[in-house]
Amino acid sequence: MTTSNIKANPLGAALCEKKWARWTALALLASAMFFAYIFVDILSPLQELLQEQRGWDPVAYGHFAGSEPFLNVFVFFLIFAGIILDKMGVRFTAVLSGAVMVAGGSLNYYAVTQGFQDSAVAVFLTENLNLPSAWWNVTPFYAGMPASAKLAAIGFMIFGCGAEMAGITVSRGIVKWFKGKEMALAMGVEMAIARVGVAVVVVGAPVIASIVPVEVSRPVAYAVLLLIIGLICFITYGFMDKKLDSQGVQEEKDDPFRVRDIGKILRLPIFWLVALLCVLYYSAIFPFQKYAINMLQCNLQFSAKDAGLVFFIFPLGAAAVTPFLGHYLDKYGKGATMLIFGAVLMILCHLTFAFIVPATQSVIVTLTAVVVLGISFALVPAALWPSVPKLIDEKLIGSAYALIFWIQNIGLYAFPMIIGSVLVASNPGVTDPMKYNYTVPMCVFASCGVAALLLGFALKALDAKKGYGLEKPNHVADDAEKELIGAAESMEE
Ligand SMILES: NCCCC[C@H](NC(=O)[C@@H](N)CCCCN)C(=O)O
Question: What does pTM read for this prediction?
Answer without folding.
Answer: 0.90
